[in-house]
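Give me the fold.
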Amino acid sequence: MKDFLVEITTDVPQDVPAEEVDRRRAAETARARELAATGRLFRLWRPVGEKRSIGIWRAADEAELRTDVLGTLPLWPWMTAVVTPLEPHPNDPSTHT
């Protein structure tokens, strides 16, 4: 699997009922846990004071990431994602002991 840096911004349309948003957010939490358990969601952060998220996600390629991973998120229809493929850096401390 390859690593991807993914920046996600969620913009819920104003006409969506609060109950629907709450239902999807709860489902989103459950789905994120499932994706983490399968190694697809590796890390996730939220910049202080912002509503966007930044994460390290894993998939075979970007197409799979967008369809089979991110596309399964309940909030995905309201999300905009910037995907950056990553590769190891020669000076990555995790590769040196």
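Strands lie at 2-10, 41-45, 53-59, 79-85.
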